[in-house]
Write a structure and sequence with these properties.
It is built from seven helices and 19 strands. With 358 residues, the chain is of the alpha+beta class. The chain has two domains: 225 residues, Probable tRNA modification gtpase trme, domain 1 (Gyrase A, domain 2); 121 residues, Elongation Factor Tu (Ef-tu), domain 3 (Beta Barrel). The chain is globular and about 60 Å long.
């Protein structure tokens, strides 16, 4: 157990490599209750939507009951305050603490995100807005190719599984849950929101019923290598308030042509017009060593950037990493750079993002 954003979290239950491969081959169960579950509502759905439109670069007009989008909160300079998922909630029968919009925040950013939203509401004089942390609920992730078979063993009707990036209310052996078709491993799966009073019972049920299929509980170690293979950014490592979504390779989530002006839009337009100062790349090392955050990236002996994340890929058994490099310094996949790992310059090859895609 280790401290993680103020929570006691399991680093590993067994061997990290075995946990990683279990998710890729069968399924894994993650306790991610440290993530912030924040309800944003006002009693006027469209007024709440209009408010949130000002805070994110995604187009929220495409949301409908049950639909979710990945997006970011940005500062005026276009830097990423946090990357989040926003759900427009469907009509709920049992879990009525959730209403209008649900935002999933990173654990270390939850309090900051909530304070920032409340500050923005005061700025535009949106006095009816409520920003509430749903701290009486827990969050699990069930990820991997056999996830639906494990759910089916609980009696859940998998014919009614929500589509990717949709959420629905359900009951699992009498326990009300919100089932979201999302995850951060590169595998298909669901995330389950459950009342904390019922959480340990659901956790044990899933593990017991999944054991014949070799379901495993998964700790932070494998969670990190899984998201790294999928090249998913981790806030505080790969993205921060000094990195824009354009620089981070997340331009697909930015809708500069949406009719609503959002915080950071002017800065992003300027970046697009003037060109980026840095770009995000994936690489593999040619020596079996691990590149760490802040390791220097060089080209022909000249520093051009730094590493944000690195590890040995359990799936490919090679060292992989990600980082920012000065715009124009790298041609693209196949180009060679060096990474200074604990005083030694190691050759690295730029590769396509992501390393792994199901």
């Amino acid at each position: 157990m280790v401290d993680f954003a103020g929570w006691q979290m399991p680093l590993q239950y067994g061997k990290v490599l075995e946990e990683h491969h279990a998710v890729r081959q069968v399924a894994g169960l993650f306790d991610i209750s440290h993530m912030g579950l924040v309800t944003v509502s006002s009693g006027d759905l469209e007024a709440t939507r209009a408010f949130l439109e000002r805070l994110v670069p995604q187009d929220l007009s495409k949301l409908k009951p049950g639909k979710a989008v990945y997006t970011q909160f940005l500062n005026e300079q276009g830097g990423i305050i946090d990357d989040i998922i926003i759900y427009q909630l469907p009509h709920l029968i049992h879990l009525t603490d959730f209403r209008e919009f649900l935002i999933i925040c990173n654990a270390s950013n939850t309090a900051k995100d909530m304070a920032w939203m409340k500050q923005q509401a005061e700025t535009v004089k949106f006095s009816g807005l409520q920003v509430i942390l749903n701290d009486q609920y827990s969050l699990f992730a069930l990820q991997g190719p056999e996830f639906s078979h494990i759910l089916a063993r609980t009696g859940y009707d998998t014919d009614h599984l929500p589509k990717r990036f949709w959420i629905a209310e359900a009951q699992i052996q009498g326990t009300p849950v919100l089932v979201s078709r999302t995850g951060y491993t590169g595998e298909d799966g669901v995330e389950l929101i459950v009342p904390s009073a019922k959480a340990s019972g659901l956790w044990d049920l899933l593990l017991d019923l999944g054991r014949p299929l070799e379901l495993r509980p998964i700790g932070l170690g494998a969670r990190d290598t899984l998201r790294l293979e999928a090249a998913y950014p981790l806030h505080g490592h790969d993205i921060s308030e000094t990195d824009s979504p354009l620089e981070a390779g997340l331009a697909w989530s930015v809708k500069l042509d949406k009719p609503v002006d959002f915080i950071g839009k002017t800065a992003l337009i300027r970046q697009r017009e003037q060109g980026l100062e840095k770009e995000f790349f994936c690489f593999t090392l040619n020596k079996r060593t691990i590149a760490r955050q802040h390791d220097i990236i060089l080209k022909n002996g000249v520093p051009i950037g730094e590493v944000t994340s690195g590890s040995i890929s359990p799936l490919f058994n090679v060292p992989i990493g990600m980082g920012y490099m000065r715009a124009g310094s790298v041609i693209g996949p196949g180009d060679t750079v060096q990474v200074r790992v604990r005083g030694t310059d190691v050759d690295a090859e730029i590769v396509e993002r992501p390393f792994y895609q199901k």
